[in-house]
Amino acid sequence: MLCINAGDRSARNEQFLHIANRHPCFSTETGVSHGRIHLPVSPACNIRCRFCNRQFNATEYRPGVSAELLKPQDAVALVRRALELCPEITVAGIAGPGDTLATSHALEAFQLIHREFPELINCLSTNGLLLERYADDIAAAGVRTLTVTVNAVDPSVLKNICAYIVVDGIKYEGIEGAEILIAAQKRGIRKAVSLGLLVKINAVLIPEVNGWHIAEIARTVRELGVGIL
Ligand code: SF4
Questions:
Q1: How far is the CA of 79 from the centre of ligand 1 (A)?
Q2: CB 188 within 8 A of CB 131
Q3: Counting atoms of ligand 1 from 1, which one is nearest the CA of 48?
Q4: Which of 170, 166, 26, 193 shows the shortest CA–CA distance to 101?
């Protein structure tokens, strides 16, 4: 059980307000006055969500679809150009199209962006499988806001959403993979919170599969120190 004292809580509130004033995902007003750019640089994934349908094409507009894949160097050039056209941009985000930590591309892109534009908020989304391993590198690359997708905290539920995971070249299926992923997410979230990152959880609600389980996800991530789901 995580105990948060009044000092910690007030520091967290201050941190949240500081970010919310510049990050469109954290405040409705900021969504009108500030902008963000999403950079598709991560080509591969290390887990297999059963609903995932990643594609490259220029005609579909939905999560998981990118018109093209950017190299890290191209991503920083795109940010440079975007800021010339739209100086209101305060956030550079990488959410895929695969997992951002399954390859080194996202961290390389953020390192380059942070070096050239240290005032930008770098924002990363991940499935959390490798979060604990890379949390220090993530923080060092100027990532201030982190989203972890947690679709279940019970392996018997998660195995129906995630078919398998791959860690260091070894594939784990079904309940075994689900147990490893949940444990890795918990360790990673705890570490990211301890490093001072503002962590938000996304959960994909699939009514018949995890619809009744969302409150349990909320309780679990709250105990890990996260306040936004
Ligand atoms: S983590 Fe994201 S990219 Fe990977 S399989 Fe799941 S939905 Fe698709």
A1: 25
A2: yes
A3: 5
A4: 166
- The CATH number of 6-223 is 3.20.20.70
Q: What is the pLDDT of residues 173-227, one digit of tens each?
A: 999 999 999 999 999 999 999 999 999 999 999 999 999 999 999 999 999 999 9
- The owner of tokens 């920083």 is 76
Alpha-carbon distance values, 196 to 2, 146, 221 (Å): 15, 10, 16
Q: What is the pLDDT of residue 54?
A: 78
Residue 221 near residue 150 (C-beta atoms within 8 A)? yes
pTM of structure: 0.89
Nearest Cα residue to atom 3 of ligand 1: 98
